[in-house]
Each structure stands twice: as structure tokens, then as C-alpha cells.
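Hi support team,

I've been running sequence recovery on a batch of backbones for a student project. Most finish fine, but this one hangs at about 90% for roughly twenty minutes before it completes. I'm not sure whether the input is malformed or the queue is just slow. I've pasted the C-alpha cells below so you can try to reproduce it. Let me know if you need the job ID as well.

Thanks,
M.K.
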């Protein structure tokens, strides 16, 4: 059936926030295509997730060259939905992709050389069926390539019209400061940084968030739900359709320990007192940071997207609540 976007998609209050000191507005939740969009998933289901998000005002979709499986197939899936349903809405979308991890054989299919980044971007554009992406990222710092070369490749992507903005992912505070200076000198300010941040992974609080605020760079934390752990998904065991059962490459069943479950049940109770699901609570906790522009969620069901948007209804935490959370996590 021909897709017609919801006419009310832009009516949710307070959904958009400026990304750092740029002019770009991003929705406070963005949808990532790392899981559930590869060839191993039914196309119609992946399509429904993308269109449902767009219908709810989620305008930002995050990809990378290697998302699948197999690598490249999430970009192909998104390209197919773009062509089939969203081509008339390209200018309402912020589409990002990245290069930095293992993508093709030989010495030029990985890390941060100019050769790899620019060839990978061309491949991504072909898979997506696009002339340009909105954001192109260096997916991880490369200890063996001069930062000048990697940042030069990002700036070239913008100058050549194949990306509108550039971003960094998994860079330390020191690397980010250096990279931001180089990019400024090249006339392509860094738009956004994509680090891992959730209740169990708080490294960004030790310097990165301060650097991003100082540099005027937006922040889009990935895995804000710890791949589903920080939701009610695992409170009663591991459901057969959950990530830890279906695709345990990254979220392994052995990570879901009794100790974690005890903490999760306490967090769940705190969430209930705030009138939130555990997923909403975990997202609101990440979004409470002034430096955080948008939380980069994944979803396997459309109902999860709706649940997660509910996080925006109760964004504030009292000092007592934050102390209680810290005490639970330290227990
Ligand atoms: P999340 O931490 O948001 O985990 C998503 C998973 O949580 C879903 O697949 C689902 O699990 C579960 N879930 C989501 N909402 C709910 C809900 N309301 N109730 C119950 N369960 C819920 O993020 P991801 O790990 O998926 O990562 C998000 C994105 O971050 C990626 O798609 C990618 O774009 C980016 N990323 C970037 C990286 C980088 O190095 N830059 C690295 C990793 C990710 P289930 O499938 O079990 O239902």
C-alpha cells in the first residue's frame, strides 16, 4: 500500500533540539539501524519500524557502512524504503553513515585513511541511493593514521558535496579536542559526537561531555538502553525474541547476571514511582545531560518506539532521585 506520512508527525511538543552550536535541529530520539535492518530480517518489518518512527516525528536515522548482517545490508534496506516511500520527504530527513570498522578485504577496507573513508562513503551513497548523506562520521579513531588525514577526508566529503556535516564516534576527550581544532581550521566544524552512554557506562561524564559543551559539538549517545538491558525486557528471564537470545554477538546472556537483575528491579521500581517504564526512565536519565542532543535508540517493535517517546514527558530528575540511582548502581 502506498505510504502516506502522518499529518500530525510534527506536532509533538519539545521534540527537537539544536545540535551543539550548529543550526541543525535533531529529534530528542533518533533511530539506529545497527540491529533489525539487515538481510536476515523481514524487509516489511524493517520498513514498518522506519515509517513508524518518521510518523512520530523522528527525522534522524543513523547507519554505518557495516550494519547488517551482512555488512552493507542495513544501508540497502534503508535505501529501498527511501526509494519506495520517502523519496518525496528526503529534505525532512537527517541520514547519517560512518566508516571506521572492518568493511572489505585488503589494506583499504578499515580504520581511518583518506582512501578508506572516501571510498566507503561512495559505496554507502550507492547502497542508500543518495547523492549525499547529512552526516558522515569517522566511526573510531585510528591510532596509526595521522588525525590530519582522517579529518581532511571528512572535510573533503563535505567540500565535494557528499556530506552536509561531519561527526566523530568513540573518540576520547583529548582526540576530540584535537580533531575539533583541525576540522575548524578546515572550515568544516564538527557537528556531533557519538559515544556510548547509559546507566552502566558513564565514561563520558569524565571529560567528554565537558569538551563537547566547550566546543559546541552535539552529543548522540548510542546504546542508551544498554542494548535492551535497561528496559523491562529481561526482568523475568530472556524472551525468545529478545536480542540476547536472537543475536547474542554483543549482548550475551551471561551479561544478564542475578546482580544486574537485582539492580534493574530496583531501577524499575524507581521508574514506576516516576510514572515511567524502565526504558523511558533510562532514556530520560541520558537526556538529562545538557550536552546530550538526542539519544540513539534501537527498536525491534513499533510499540518500543512509542514507549520510548514517552520518556520526553517526564525529563527532570530530583537530586534525591539521582542519588538513589547512584546508590543502586554502586550496590
Ligand atoms: P539500545 O540501547 O536503545 O537498545 C535497543 C534494544 O533495546 C532494542 O533492539 C530492543 O531490544 C530494546 N528496546 C528498545 N526500546 C524498548 C522498550 N521500550 N521496551 C523494551 N525493550 C526495548 O540501542 P542499540 O544497541 O540498538 O543501538 C542503537 C544505535 O546506536 C544503533 O542502531 C547504532 O545506530 C548506534 N550504535 C553506534 C555504535 C558506534 O560505535 N558508534 C555502536 C553501537 C550502536 P530487543 O531487540 O531485544 O527487543
Amino acid at each position: 500500500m502506498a505510504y502516506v506520512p502522518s499529518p500530525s508527525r510534527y506536532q509533538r511538543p519539545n521534540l527537537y533540539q539544536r545540535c551543539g552550536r550548529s543550526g541543525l535541529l535533531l529529534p530528542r530520539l533518533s533511530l539506529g539501524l545497527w540491529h533489525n535492518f539487515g538481510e536476515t530480517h523481514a524487509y516489511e518489518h524493517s520498513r514498518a519500524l522506519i515509517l513508524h518512527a518518521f510518523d512520530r516525528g523522528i527525522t534522524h536515522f543513523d547507519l554505518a557502512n557495516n550494519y547488517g548482517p551482512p555488512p552493507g545490508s542495513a544501508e540497502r534496506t534503508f535505501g529501498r524504503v527511501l526509494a519506495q516511500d520517502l523519496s518525496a520527504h528526503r529534505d525532512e530527513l537527517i541520514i547519517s553513515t560512518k566508516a571506521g570498522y572492518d568493511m572489505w578485504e585488503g589494506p583499504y577496507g578499515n580504520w581511518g585513511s583518506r582512501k578508506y573513508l572516501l571510498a566507503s562513503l561512495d559505496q554507502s551513497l550507492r547502497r542508500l541511493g543518495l547523492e549525499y548523506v547529512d552526516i558522515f562520521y569517522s566511526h573510531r579513531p585510528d591510532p596509526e593514521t595521522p588525525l590530519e588525514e582522517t579529518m581532511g577526508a571528512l572535510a573533503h566529503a563535505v567540500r565535494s558535496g557528499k556530506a552536509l556535516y561531519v561527526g566523530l564516534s568513540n573518540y576520547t576527550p583529548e582526540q576530540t579536542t584535537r580533531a575539533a581544532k583541525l576540522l575548524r581550521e578546515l572550515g568544516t566544524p564538527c557537528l556531533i559526537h557519538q559515544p556510548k552512554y547509559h546507566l552502566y557506562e558513564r565514561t563520558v561524564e569524565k571529560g567528554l561531555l565537558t569538551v563537547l559543551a566547550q566546543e559546541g559539538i552535539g552529543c548522540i549517545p548510542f546504546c542508551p538502553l544498554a542494548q535492551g538491558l535497561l528496559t523491562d525486557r529481561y526482568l523475568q528471564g530472556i524472551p525468545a525474541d529478545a536480542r540476547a537470545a536472537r543475536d547474542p554477538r554483543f549482548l550475551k546472556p551471561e551479561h544478564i547476571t542475578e546482580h544486574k537483575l537485582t539492580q534493574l528491579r530496583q531501577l524499575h521500581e524507581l521508574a514506576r514511582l516516576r510514572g515511567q517504564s524502565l526504558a523511558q526512565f533510562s532514556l530520560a536519565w541520558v537526556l538529562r545531560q545538557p550536552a546530550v542532543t538526542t539519544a540513539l535508540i534501537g527498536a525491534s517493535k513499533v510499540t518500543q518506539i512509542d514507549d520510548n517517546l514517552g520518556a520526553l514527558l517526564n525529563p527532570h530528575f530530583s537530586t534525591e532521585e539521582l542519588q538513589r540511582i547512584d546508590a543502586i548502581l554502586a550496590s
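--
Follow-up from support: It reproduced on our side and the slowdown came from queue contention, not your input. The pocket of NDP is lined by residues 32-35, 62, 139, 169-170, 194, 222-228, 231-233, 242-243, 279, 296-300, 304, 307-308 (CB under 6 Å). No action needed from you.
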